[in-house]
Design a protein that fits this description.
Length: 283
């Protein structure tokens, strides 16, 4: 696995495993637990040592599945990211949420704790005071945010003594400056350059836009042949070729987990990266 430097001493794997829809959507789904746990274990064996989850996923059940899967491994080999939902950002709610996440994850620390999305009602100073106390108590190693724009990143950093090390945002060949939600805008022109200049890792979520990116496209079709790689591998390789960008494709299929790992360890010619930078993709 390749890594990117997190802050001065830490590192984050370039490719991680997304877990949205493993063990349910907003609500828990217990029907496929055995497969889900063995898929996550298998992914870790294959090299996916960063697992991205959230208290919201599967109404908490996804964290339970991740917790069961990681028990077979040395804890320090795994980098666990989880997120506090934006309705739980009051000081005491954050502490309670993280206590519950740690319990479900069966671990005594979280590597990276993110604010899942900004809140319009709860002051960020209150949330980050709780994040700071969790770092102080060594329950959380690194803190970050998700779906934040530049002004929100600047404000957040002013309210914590810890470095905001990461911003998880929707970013792929398809969603350049405009994502699904109103808050996901200006990623390429504003948020990413700001993160790159300020030593913040960009965790690109939905790297293949749930498969939408894998449709025929003249440039992707051409690059597939030129590099003997699949469209998913090209889309992921394009992301991680960028300064400070790591990503977290979700798959529960061994063949596709392997395929996505095949996005690592090679480089496209600069001209092709530029063509992709300039290409238009539509869903
Ligand atoms: N912070 C946020 O607000 C936020 C929002 C959305 C997502 N996320 C995180 O980002 C992760 C990734 O996003 P996502 O799961 O929405 O979308 P994604 O990773 O872009 O796509 C996942 C979908 O594509 C399929 N897939 C994976 N690899 C493939 C390949 N090589 N070829 C064809 N199909 C492939 C998967 O199916 P199979 O499982 O059948 O392979 C799954 O249906 C999430 O799981 C979650 O952890 C965070």
């Amino acid at each position: 696995m390749q890594y990117k430097r997190l802050v001065t001493e830490g590192q984050i794997p370039v490719l991680g495993l997304g877990t949205w829809l493993i063990g349910g959507g907003q609500e828990p789904d217990y029907t496929d637990d055995k497969n889900a746990i063995s898929t996550i274990k298998n992914a870790i064996h294959l090299g996916y040592t960063h697992i991205d989850t959230a208290e919201m996923y599967g109404g908490g059940h996804t964290e339970e599945l991740v917790g069961k899967a990681i028990q077979d491994f040395s804890r320090k080999e795994i980098f666990v990211t989880t997120k506090v939902r934006n309705t739980k950002l009051r000081y005491n709610d954050v502490l309670q949420s993280v206590k519950e996440s740690l319990h479900r994850l069966q671990t005594n620390y979280i590597d990276l704790l993110l604010i899942h999305a900004p809140s319009n009602t709860i002051p960020i100073s209150e949330t980050l005071r709780a994040f700071d106390s969790l770092v102080e108590a060594k329950l959380v190693k690194y803190i970050g945010v998700s779906n934040f724009q530049v002004d929100q990143l600047i404000e957040a950093q002013q309210h914590t003594k810890n470095k905001i090390v990461a911003n998880q945002i929707e970013y792929s060949l398809l969603t350049r400056n405009t994502g699904r939600y109103a808050e996901n805008k200006d990623m390429e022109t504003k948020t990413i350059p700001y993160c790159q200049q300020n030593n913040i890792i960009i965790i690109a979520e939905r790297p293949i836009e749930r498969g939408l990116l894998l449709k025929s496209h003249p440039l992707l079709d051409k690059l597939e042949v030129k590099y003997n790689k699949t469209k998913a591998q090209i889309a992921i390789n394009w992301l991680i070729s960028k300064q400070n960008v790591v990503t977290i494709p979700k798959s529960t299929n061994e063949k596709r987990l392997m395929e996505n790992l095949g996005a690592l360890g090679w480089k496209m010619d600069k001209e092709d990266t530029k063509l992709l930078d300039e290409a238009q993709f539509v869903s």
